[in-house]
Design goal:
The protein has helices at residues 6-16, 18-24, 48-67, 111-114, 133-143, and strands at residues 2-5, 26-32, 43-46, 76-86, 96-104, 147-150, 158-167. By secondary structure, the protein is of the alpha+beta class. It has one domain: Heat Shock Protein 90. Strands 1, 2, 3, 4, 5, 6 and 7 form a seven-stranded mixed beta sheet that branches. Strand 6 and strand 7 form a beta hairpin. Helix 1 packs across helix 3. It is globular and about 45 Å long.
């Protein structure tokens, strides 16, 4: 287990998906709020490889959805937003959450799909997908004592929230 900075993972994911995003006409924006009113840079503790994989899967799903959406090329957008949320139930004011929102301005997800979206093996890609991406995101979130949600009432578009317990930055020698 390592303590790692979310902004670095976000940059890596954007770099990893640059080619797919360009081919689909999608712009990926990062809005990682390290300078928040709690003076809490966004760090979490866990496996950076797994966290990178989860964040990559959320963004890649957005790219794939946008590539098949009616949104014109050049107007297609994914935002990866990182925020610190203090815990209201925590015993210490130092405890809280890192919330990562992955939003895209594509078409909404139909209710019948929403109910099954995290099921292992469920895919809307008809022969092109294995249905493992979002179930893997859910497994990574749970392994990090967090959770992932497909948020309701997002207009326009689709938004997921990945919530992981916040960690303090590593001590500098």
């Amino acid at each position: 287990m390592e303590t790692f900075r979310i902004a670095e993972i976000g940059e890596e994911v954007r770099r990893l998906l640059r080619t797919q995003a360009e081919q689909a006409g999608v712009h990926i924006e990062l809005q990682i709020n390290d300078a928040n009113k709690w003076d809490r840079p966004l760090y979490v503790r866990g496996d950076p490889f797994l966290f990178r994989l989860a964040l990559r899967n959320l963004a890649l799903n957005g790219i794939q959805a946008l590539s098949e959406s009616p949104v014109p090329r050049g107007e297609r957008c994914i935002r990866i937003i990182g925020l610190y949320s203090p815990s209201h139930a925590a015993a210490s004011p130092l405890e809280g959450w890192v919330d990562i929102y992955v939003w895209n301005n594509g078409s909404p997800i139909p209710p019948e799909v929403r109910r099954r979206i995290f099921d292992r093996g469920f895919s809307t890609k008809l022969g092109r997908g294995l249905g493992l991406g979002l179930s893997l995101v859910q497994s990574v979130a749970e392994a990090h004592s967090g959770r992932v949600l497909l948020l309701e009432d997002v207009s326009p578009g689709v938004q997921f929230r990945l919530r992981i317990p916040a960690a303090l930055p590593p001590l500098q020698p």
